[in-house]
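Q: Hi! First time asking for a complex rather than a single chain. Here are the components, and I think there are two in total. Is that enough to go on?
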Amino acid sequence: MRQPDDIDNLLRRTRPEPAPLPPDRADALLRRAIEQSGVEKTGRPGFRASLGAWGLRLAPAAAAAGLIALALFPHPRPQAAPRSLPTAAMRAAAMHDNPATGGSGSPSVAPPFIVPAPAAGPRQTAMSMEASIPRAAAPPEPVQQSEESRPARRSNPASTPHRPAMLVASAGRRTDRRTEEPSSIIITVDPPDATAGTHPAARTASYAYASAVDRLPDGSPVTRTCAIVDRGDTVRTTATTESPSPQSSSVLTLVTTTPDTRGPGQSVPGRGRETR
Amino acid sequence: MEHSTAMRTPLDIPSARGGVPEAPAWLDAARRGERWALESMYREHQPQVYALCVRVLGRTEDAEDATMTTFALAFQALPGFRGQSSLRTWLYRIAVNAATALLRKRRDEPPIDDNTGGQDPAGRMCETIAVRAALAKLRPEYRIILILRFWEDLAYDEIAEALRISMPATKMRLKRAREEFERVYEERP
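A: Yes, that's all I need. Here is the structure of the assembled complex.
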């Protein structure tokens, strides 16, 4: 049986002395830490970064709420038709007989017919919630792959003229020097105040995302998300805010699979393709 | 612009052991988010934080991630740092949380990274490997408290500060961690 002092001494004399970080890696970490914290100059987290973070936190809840709504109301109910639609003649009669409109005001005439507000039923509720759900990626269409690496880009259809500057995201994976297996993912985004991160199971699922906060014409913020990387892909690109890691083992181009014709607030998935 | 005070070594920052901690000159500027001050804070404390993360996680790439997370969180939380503990202990607390989160997320056992300076004499290599393997098998809270005590050389009160537990709880956890380590170490093949 060892004495406690033996254990203490054993631990102390086997204390490892890690090699310090190389200066370039240390600088890169500092840059990323400052970017991620968003505190530079202001002393508090950046407003846009906070909105982006909250958007990412709320996205799963919105998706869950949408799914629940769709489960509760899977089929649109037929619109309940008004019992009696006002004909032009009835409206004219009402108008004519209404004292407020200069009519005769005869008490025998029914009050003006009020047209019910359309579509206040559950169908519209479900539809409006669905609109906030980041949908799954549509089946990828064949994409023309150029020789050089290009990051994922957001299309800017005319149907959504307020669509903002593109969100470009890329991810690079480091390779374990000993096992030669991918070990972690670095994500870089443009604009730099966009939010990026990895899925909690990134090490096994290789799933990365990026998002940025944009503003609609009325000034309301909307979070946009892109760059979902598939399992097994290793990604890196040149158009990033950070130089690619020299340890990355291959290059991946992120391309948008379908033209973005969705409304504001919806996600646009990017899809990875490996271009070794 | 010259910031001579930012060039102080970590040893110049008094720890909780030395009584009331003295605030570094760049602290107020760092709270306001001035980049030079954030850089000063990083340059001063990054080596220690990174070394702690390597010792806990055993993998340099994970340690880099944890270090980055630690400083990002620290930069955000700096306006709320009241200086009741030393900045080093405060950073250790954040680093321990970041490293623990990574440890819990990681299902496999951490590899024994040989990128640790290579200063062990050949005769101690087996012992070193056995100790690290035994530590890797411990529960994260036991591993971390042993590392803080014997590798980071923190005092009990500093460990209590870093782990946010009471002093008796610190001593009790350390005792149990030591016993568990001994059990695992003795039953190695």
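A: DSSP finds six helices and seven strands in chain A. Let me know if you'd like any chain examined more closely.
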